[in-house]
Amino acid sequence: MIPPAFDYHAPTSVGEAIGLLARLGGDARVLAGGHSLLPMMKLRFAQPGHLVDLNRISALRGIREEGGVIRIGAMTTEHELIAFRLLQEKLPLLPEAARQIGDPQVRNRGTLGGDLAHGDPANDHPAIAIALDATFVLEGPKGPRTVKAEDFFLGLYLTALAEDEILTEIRAAPFAPGTGWAYDKLKRKTGDWATAAAAVVLRLEAGKVAYARIALTNVAATALRAVDAEQALLGRPLDEAAIRDAMARARAICDPAEDLRGDAAYKTAMAGEMLRRALGHAAERCR
Amino acid sequence: MNAPIDRAAALAGIGQPRLRKEDARFVQGKGRYVDDIKLPGMVHMDIVRSPLAHARIKRIDKSAALAVPGVIAVLTAEDLKPLKLHWMPTLAGDVQAVLADGKVHFQMQEVAVVIAEDRYSAADGVEAVAVEYEELPVLVDALKALEPDAPVLREDLAGKTEGAHGRRLHPNHIFTWEAGDQAAADAAFEAAPVRVEEALFYPRVHPCPLETCGCVAAFDPVRGELTTYMTSQAPHVVRTVVSMLSGLPESKVRIVSPDIGGGFGNKVGVYPGYVCAIVASIVLGRPVKWIEDRIENLSSTAFARDYHMKGELAATADGRITGLRVHVVADHGAFDAMASPSKYPAGLFHVCSGAYDIPAAYARVDGVYTNKAPGGVAYRCSFRVTEAVYLIERLIDVLAQKLNIDKAEIRMRNFIRKEQFPYRSAFGLEYDSGDYAAALRKVLDAVVYPALRAEQAAKRADPASPSLMGIGLTTFTEVVGAGPTTSCDILGVGMFDSCEIRVHPTGSAIARMGTISQGQGHQTTYAQIVATELGIPSEEVQVEEGDTSTAPYGLGTYGSRSTPVGGAAVAMAARKIHAKAKKIAAHLLEVSEADLEWELDRFKVRGDPGRSKTMKDIAWAAYHEPPPGLEPGLEAVHYYDPPNFTFPFGAYLCVVDITKATGEVQVRRFYALDDCGTRINPMIIEGQIHGGLTEGFAVAMGQKLDFDAQGNILGNTLLDYFLPTAVETPRWETDYTVTPSPHHPLGAKGVAESPHVGSIPCFSSAVADAFAHLGVTHLEMPHTAYRVWQTCRELKLAA
Amino acid sequence: MAKQLIRVKVNGRDIERAVEPRLLLVHFLREELDLTGTHIGCETSHCGACTVDLDGRSVKSCTVLAVQCDGAEVATVEGLAQGGVLHAVQEGFYQEHGLQCGFCTPGMLMRAYRLLQENPDPTEEEVRAGMSGNLCRCTGYQNIVKAVLYAAAKLREAHKAEEKIAA
Question: Mind listing the pLDDT tens digit for each residue in C8-53?
């Protein structure tokens, strides 16, 4: 399995990278961690004439808190998401999800931005970003613009990112005190994509759900925000009836494609089960 | 150092957990695998494969490929025809297209090869070969192969009503093979008060060693000699086949199996890639390297299993089995490339009466062609033994369930008893030795079986429990060490194996073998046998195998035959040397041989403990002052023709917990007791058992090569094909008993395949057991969460 | 598709080569530098046989381009032993029978080497998780886990001894 020939570009600034994309047009692909793109190229499913490698742009790496917002460079690796104390303290859903992606070596290369920009509904970060109500910064020849995570994923491998744009930063608000979170993912083995997975951000007040944000992985052409399921929980105690209600509403929006992981019925049911697990785990952490 | 206990320790012979000799190179990255070999002027070959499962080839256009920089040549069947190498014989008496001759019979079939200066150019060349196809109807379902209107696959066999194994009943039929006594079995069923039957599908799986197949073929046009480095589990047989195919004298063909990165049956056969690389090397006069990628390995080189089995048991009301009937439809793919002793088209499937004393039995296997990759290899098992053991172990569980007798108890009632050995089964196999009941009792005691059943009963009584608990049990016997040359051969060559030992003047030794290790640690264990037999420290015994120019002819390593056959050859060769050494010692000590006794590493004069000669002394004398009339030197060769197979056995128990809502199966406990007779290196045995159990776990819980209706292979990368990591793999508990083989010179039986053979039905037994109280008798493998959930849903255990 | 010049430090040795951009790191090591200890098992970044150390992190060299390593430090299994003395992970695999066919072993060793720097005192669970990017078909991992724990203990002892000397 050998990739086809291409020209390689390693810009050191975002501006340089955008310039390259503008110049090279549709024949160029952005290279982040490479763990989706390079295998696709080896299989010759993708045959770009140019690769624009973002790995040497230091401005795209790192995590910081600024003005009450956590800002994460798009080229931050999964390993860094797990290792950074700031995230463990303020946005622990991200490291929890990152730990369930790939394997140690893959997490050393795979990046947050690459996972999101690929537009693959099987990737885990789209649902996490939606659950975090994150904002993405996209930069192109006309400068930066922001898009809400919920509005970014348009279809299978289809995102709001234009051909000459780069996803540069992911922004999200730190969790308020008392916030519970969980990402529960059913997979066949280490390194697999989710059969189904659910991300939950939850706050309880006086024993009732005061805030719930729910997103699902790999049960439709894009990651899904389960708004109806969230609504079903608000204002209610997180009891069996409420959970069942949320599960049913989450299942109702699933439209998964059958593959070796299971048929639509299984994946839909598992989306519900993962939601049950995630709600349980999130609730435990609310205390 | 003179106390026997110290000398025994210094020998590190049989029974010692000796650390492995081969590890020094492997832990330093200095192994030499086939892809590590680089020869001057070497070029690379890559293969154009069919995207379709069944199609006529209308046209192959090489021109664009030949224009790719670095591409040297493109070969198709048309180019091989003048050499009569476009088809080749298989090990099973069929023929297989080397490169598709007018039509393709399975997806990923070899259509053309591209030879280029480097592997990157070769890959580009493959992309550039244009092939035009005309699609044909595809046959995927083996059970439909013999229907009157089924698409005919093998047009090359048109009109041939006789195959290598007798009459063919249909154009897609390969053979019918029968064993046992049908009339006796039918009579047993008619008389039986109790009968059970179960249809069992054993899915197509792949051995998937971590190293794929490959070779470097180097033809020397000046000397007219062909050297091929190859990932082969049977280099000598390959040399014979290559000589027959190429017309080169066998003396001018050298096959070298270098270090092999796992085989598990995948590397027994001769694949088109090898043949093409050899042809290319002969044509170009340059060394040609071909290395499969993983997708090619999973899609085109030999698969295992794919047996559609129907089994029936007849029994008395108290659970004594009186009869067994089996019918199998065996899917061999597009060409019958099964690797098995030639006279056994269904391998040793007739061990399917298992560890039980069954008076009447009959089995019939029908092999059929389908539009899938050819093969039918033994994946970490003796030929078709995994299928056989799966069948009988599942059936006896079904019988137990029907009669409401505990699984352990029904086995106890049916075991061949210790005093019945040697035992002739209803299928005619002579089991050498065993003590099945003792093995099972030891396991039941170790796990406190009644407590497990009590826990399970409590769980079943609680409908609110989110999980199910299943207890699996298997008590199996294998039949390994093929085999006696009276019944076992490969292409006419008897399945003996060989050893040549040379003791050097200074007392160290080299042993050369006809087998070839793929991780089994032969360099370590064979040396231990020599150490015990000849009193030469194993550290001073060099073991070499795999090079047909230096090693004696042997049939290779598969079917757990290295210890039963190769190990026996070591012992027998050593004993020849021992006998000569005794003559020399008698001469040196000026006594008669009858006055000598052997102690570890020396001959002592009986009754005169001060007088002795060590093997070191004797070796020097053999070259320096041999007794008059005795040839100088100290060496021997032995070709060991085993009088019988050996029959290792075991008792395994597995506990699983199943989450009703998701179908996830967690292996809580797995206890494996093995009896492989005499244990040569306990450390290596335990390692082999861990590995076999893990491969068994993978097969039972996730491996399956599936196809869609168009014959597209599904899941042929390691993303989908289930190789568990350290996280998914259960913790193994191992145990043993020792029941030596009476006919093996060391009493040893072979071990590495038992854990694979024995564990797979044990996992299935456990998963089915979890649902047994709800009337479930059997569930098809693999037991993925998805499939188990479907059962949960049908039983209203899951939403 | 012009070749590009790269400078890489491999096992402490400075290397300068012109490479095709599509050349994979694993092929660069095996074919250009003849460091054949690093193996290829799946090519889709699942098996880990090609694991090497890249700037202090374990990576699968079948899914990294050689050009991406310009200016980087790479360590392979050939660089583990120092001065003819096996590294503790190599000794652990030998002592605990952590290998059979040896094909996965270099990747396992390189991953274990890095894992023990990231976590010098791992639990069995942490070893299993930390090694989960490496497949083995022979051993069933039980002895690999033991081998890594053996190496961890040995490295901790060596570290303690060093601290004593320093004190």
Answer: 999 999 999 999 999 999 999 999 999 999 999 998 999 999 999 9
For residue B526, the one-letter residue type is Y
Q: Amino acid identity of B670?
A: F
pLDDT band at residue C167 under the 50/70/90 scheme? confident
Domains of chain B: which residue ranges?
A: 4-31+497-640, 34-136+212-260+267-300, 304-482+645-794
Chain C CB within 8 Å of residue A34 CB: yes
DSSP state of B33: B
Contact C45 A106 (CB under 8 A): yes
Cα separation values, A163 from A27, A141, A154, B658, B676, Å: 10, 11, 14, 47, 64
The complex's ipTM works out to 0.98
Say which residue the tokens 């990294």 belong to.
Answer: C64
Where does chain C hold its CATH 3.10.20.30 domain(s)? 4-79
Q: For domain C4-79, is the CATH number 3.10.20.30?
A: yes
Beta-bridged to residue A66, according to DSSP, are A69
Compare CB distances from C67 to A8, A102, A104 and report the shortest one's residue: A8
Instruction: For residue range C48-68, list pLDDT tens digits in order.
Output: 999 999 999 999 999 999 999
Query: Measuring CA to CA, how many Å separate B23 from each of A107, B26, B321, C108?
Result: 30, 5, 48, 14
Domains B4-31+497-640 and B304-482+645-794 share a fold: yes
Pick the CATH number of C88-166 from 3.30.70.360, 3.40.50.620, 1.10.3720.10, 1.10.150.120: 1.10.150.120
Backbone angles phi and psi of C65, in degrees to 5: -85, 145
Nearest neighbour of B211 by CB, restricted to C41, C97, C139: C41
Nearest to A103, CA basis, from C42, B101, B356: C42
Q: Are B757 and B383 in contact (CB under 8 A)?
A: no
Per the CB < 8 A criterion, the answer to whether A103 and B718 are in contact is no
Q: Across the 799 residues of chain B, what is the mean pLDDT of every consecutive 10-residue run?
A: 86 96 97 98 98 98 98 98 95 96 98 98 98 98 97 96 96 98 98 98 98 98 96 96 92 98 95 97 97 98 96 98 98 96 95 98 98 94 96 98 98 98 98 98 98 98 96 98 93 95 98 96 97 98 97 94 96 98 97 97 94 98 95 98 97 98 98 98 98 98 97 96 98 98 97 96 98 97 98 94
Q: Detail the DSSP E strand segments found in chain A.
A: 7-9, 28-31, 50-53, 63-66, 69-73, 135-140, 143-148, 153-155, 158-159, 166-172, 180-186, 196-205, 208-217, 224-225
* B727 and chain A in contact, CB less than 8 A: yes
Residue-level pLDDT at B1: 52
Does residue C51 belong to the interface with chain B, where contact is any CB pair within 8 Å? no
Query: Is B34-136+212-260+267-300 a CATH 3.90.1170.50 domain?
Result: yes
B-chain residue closest to C42, CA distance: B294
Percent of chain C at pLDDT exceeding 90: 95
Instruction: For A91-126, write each residue's pLDDT tens digit.
Output: 999 999 999 999 999 999 999 999 999 999 999 999
**Which DSSP string corresponds to B513-527?**
ESS--SSS-HHHHHH
CATH of domain B304-482+645-794: 3.30.365.10
Q: E strands within B562-708?
A: 596-599, 602-605, 608-614, 635-640, 649-659, 665-675, 706-707
Q: Which fold has domain B4-31+497-640?
A: Aldehyde Oxidoreductase; domain 4 (3.30.365)
Residue A123, min C-alpha distance to chain C (Å): 16
Span A161-181, pLDDT tens digits? 999 999 999 999 999 999 999
Domains belonging to chain A, first-starting first, are 7-52 (3.30.43.10), 63-172 (3.30.465.10), 193-284 (3.30.390.50)
Partners of residue C43 in chain A, C-beta under 8 Å = 1, 39, 42
Is C115 within 8 Å of chain B by CB? no
